[in-house]
Amino acid sequence: MAVVRDLRVLLRFQGFRRLLGVRLLSQGADGVFQVALATYVVFSPEKQTSAASIASAMAVLLLPYSLIGPFAGVLLDRWRRRQVFLYGNLLRAGLACVTAVLMLGNVPAWLFYVSALCVTAVNRFVLAGLSAALPRVVDAERLVLANSVSPTAGTLAATTGGGVAFAVRLLGADSDAAVVLVGAGVYLCAALAAARIAADLLGPDRAEVHPRLGEALTGIARGLGAGVRHLAQPPRRPAAWALTAMTLMRFCYGALTVMLLMLCRYAWTSGSDDGLALLGLAVGVSGAGFFVAALVTPWAAGRLGPGRWIAVCAGAAALLEPALCLPFTPAPMLVAAFFLGVTTQGAKIATDTVVQSTVEDGFRGRIFSVYDVLFNVAFVGAAGVAALILPSDGRSVALVVTVAVTYAAVAAAMARFERR
After folding, report:
1. Model's pTM, two decimal places?
2. SS3 of residue 360 by DSSP
3. CA 289 to CA 314: how far, in whole Å?
4. Which residue, of 78, 192, 317, 331, has the greatest Cβ tally within 10 A?
5. What stretches of 308-380 adopt beta strand conformation (E)?
6. Burial of 409 (0-12, 13-18, 19+ CB in 10 A)
7. Tell me, what DSSP letter sits at residue 328?
8. How far, in Å, CA of 374 to CA of 127, rounded?
9. Mean pLDDT, 10 residues at a time, the chain of 420 residues
């Protein structure tokens, strides 16, 4: 098969292999850490979780990225990306240990959230840097394939990390703090993997950035304005449309995530451990969908074009989501988790490719940081909408219909843009 042949060639790039290793370990640790937080906030037996409390937790952990994101973009376009991966993962390992200690102690909730926020804040630099560095380690001919393998493999690594966390929690760990410490160990391994990459391999090129960091930080507003103007240029408009479409699809995914959490916690199971096990199964099924998307997207995006493939993914989600979610029973919902995994990850691979192929290297750090900010704001906004709509057991026809209409609007808009 052509894909297998190209994949073999891709893995011959030493820089790509090492960058992929950093991604797998970093996102695997993210999966461990995020599941530990979810079980601590949502599935602790002593906590009476509501959709509003889930939305509040997401807001505390994710909304500050709207402030961090612009700084991350400016710095990523000036710092050596390899150093970001090395020191960022070392810092996350230490902060994760602090979070574990706070979980064990009787501390105010805000202190725990601040510590967890610091861990996930560094994540913005690492993930944006991984995407911005990818074109530095593969040739243009295989960039689409690299975007299928690398981010999807990272998502699968996060899913695997989440599975490890579920297993550790259900099979013997006395507390979520022990799971967090496992994540800290994996962050340390990611830092060691980053140390094996040449310091200047991943860019950015010194000639393409301003030398004075102070001026860059004081001119963040101008820098972001320049980034927006860069996206508004005719050659970059496909990236702007793809980012908008992916943001709306992320909104849909966030709303369904909150609904699934509530269903697993209250509607489908009688105990927190049973709900946690069912949620773990849903995460694994969705991960299988990500894997299928990695196999299908290079062929589909090559035949249709990335923009049309985004439209197809959104349209398929608009049809499948209400058909599978409206029964509000576990089996159809698990099938929905698989297919939405395929469509969401397929659209993301296409979006990454459009952004990387149309945005100049000197702007990629800023654009991918804005990309992350849009993701988080959409996810938190979806959680807020879900908190207003969802009843206590998580069953809401209105939410399912709202998500389906949003998917359909994205599909229609992208199809119209591609025709124009």
Report:
1. 0.72
2. coil
3. 15
4. 317
5. none
6. middle
7. -
8. 14
9. 63 89 94 84 63 69 65 73 92 93 82 82 82 85 78 82 83 77 95 91 70 63 72 82 93 90 78 71 86 88 91 96 93 94 92 85 74 80 85 88 96 90
